[in-house]
Amino acid sequence: MSNIIPITDFSAPELDIYARLSEIQLFRYHEPENGLFIAESPKVIERALDMGYTPVSMLVEEKQITGQAKQIIDRCKDIPVYTAELPVLTRLTGYQLTRGILCAMRRRTLPDIKELCTSARRIVVLERIMNPTNVGAIFRSAAALGMDAILLTPSCTDPLYRRAVRVSMGTVFQIPWTFLDREASVPVLKELGFTTAAMALHPLSIGIDDPRLPAADRLAVILGSEGDGLSTDTIAECDFTVRIPMAHGVDSLNVAAASAVAFWQLGRTDT
After folding, report:
1. pLDDT score of 77
2. Higher pLDDT, 122 or 184
3. Per-residue pLDDT for 32 more than 90?
4. 3-class DSSP string for the chain
5. What is the pLDDT of residue 167?
């Protein structure tokens, strides 16, 4: 049976991971070993557990112990479950918990890029995308629309930041991903045998429905930062620069919305 612990002392060090540590501090919590991340809401936590992530403790609204959190608590056996009424938890964390439950979990070692891409035919590359909401939304679209893996350049937001995990609805645990060791991704992709498609507004862009794209045996779809888009070097090095046709004088979509369109179209193959 899980250890249910009512919160009586806001300053208890066991609550630091929920109330006082930043995302960076959680990332470094067990250095040199892997750190922690926070999963929020029953569905997200269940997806993490299904994929083998190890829970450390939980913070649960009192009424959810016998409600939506019960099944999760039963799965997690004897980890500490800190509990109080929702206003107390909101005061502690500084925000209102989604469906009244948070779970601290251990990070896992990220896979090697070659290992990740060995059997992948359609991958996503994120370049300098820093908004965790956008990263989470892109992961959700990639998982839903059949992309095989995601690579991120070093300046991207960590997909295991709380907001990214929540927006992704836990798909960050379902689709394989890892970080590149440099911002220049195209040479690495070409070494791995991928045709590269940069999503960008450019005079030489081809339409997203160009038949050469689904004909590619292995295709990497590259998306750029929210403000500046892809770097000029990335665009120049890619095999194709691809645009989504716009109407009513709109020049482009938000990167998360554009990703869903791109994955729907470019995830198809001519096999």
Report:
1. 82
2. 122
3. no
4. CCEEEECCCCCCHHHHHHHCCCHHHHHCCCCCCCCEEEEECHHHHHHHHHCCCCEEEEEEEHHHHHCCCHHHHHHCCCCEEEEECHHHHHHHHCCCCHHHEEEEEECCCCCCHHHHHCCCCEEEEECCCCCHHHHHHHHHHHHHCCCCEEEECCCCCCCCCHHHHHHCCCHHHCCCEEECCCCCCHHHHHHCCCEEEEECCCCCCEECCCCHHHHCCCEEEEECECCCECCHHHHHHCCEEEECCCCCCCCCCCHHHHHHHHHHHHCCCCC
5. 95
